[in-house]
Design brief:
Chain lengths: 116, 110
């Protein structure tokens, strides 16, 4: 019973490079959420996806950030042309149900992105 | 937009003392969830409260949901060093995402 998996666990990029963060939800879960956490801060919602659909991307910056959850394979959070301010821990969570249903979210271990 | 506020931001207690963190929402919540994040770890679900005035207990942890469903609290009785971490409350957004408070970081001195 594997939990939510994220890779890489640590990612170092130079300014201007691209960062790709992957998330495999728990088996049977089709709802995926991405959150960003700065040191000593709470979790800030970025985007909510279901298979092949973006349900809510209200928390995601309009530029440089994109997310997908294809029919096959993990969910990907992509950050283009990274800047130092993108350095943070990025957590993915998945749930069995979504929307208005009871939706306990199971979090992955996170990817800690450092931009040099 | 919907906001969830938590106080205090930090709490230092002596082992054996009690601890309480408070959560307030700017809007009425359909439910509220509580998570714990150990240092260097990821958030782990603790509980969900749904009903107005609901009280739930998990061993030394007591969770309350306010009558107006706009506030909640988590109380830990007789803290232990294993309780160290950051406790987050989260309200559900309109689409099912979670809106987290900034958390209360608990440190316990043995």
């Amino acid at each position: 019973n594997a939990g939510v998996m994220q890779n890489p666990r640590h990612l170092v990029r130079r300014r201007g490079q691209e960062a790709r963060l992957r998330c495999s939800p728990m088996k049977g879960h089709s709802h995926v959420y991405w959150y960003r956490q700065l040191p000593e801060e709470g979790l800030k919602f970025m985007v909510y996806l279901q298979k092949e659909n973006i349900i809510d991307e209200s928390g995601m910056p309009k530029e440089r950030f994109s997310a997908e959850f294809p029919k096959e394979g993990p969910s990907i959070l992509r950050i283009q042309q990274v800047v130092r301010g993108d350095s943070a821990a990025y957590f993915c969570a998945s749930s069995l149900l979504g929307g208005s249903s009871y939706n306990e979210q199971f979090f992955g271990p996170g990817t800690r992105l450092t931009v040099l | 937009g919907q906001q969830v506020m938590q106080i205090p931001q930090y709490q230092h207690v002596q082992e054996g003392e009690d601890f309480t963190t408070y959560c307030n929402s700017s809007t009425t919540l359909s439910n509220i969830q509580w998570y714990k994040q150990r240092p260097g770890g990821h958030p782990v679900f603790l509980i969900q409260l749904v009903k107005s005035g609901e009280v739930k207990k998990q061993k030394r942890l007591t969770f309350q949901f306010g009558e107006a469903k706009k506030n909640s609290s988590l109380h830990i009785t007789a803290t232990q060093t294993t309780d160290v971490g950051t406790y987050f409350c989260a309200g559900r957004g309109s689409q099912g995402n979670l809106i987290f408070g900034k958390g209360t970081k608990l440190s316990v001195k043995p």
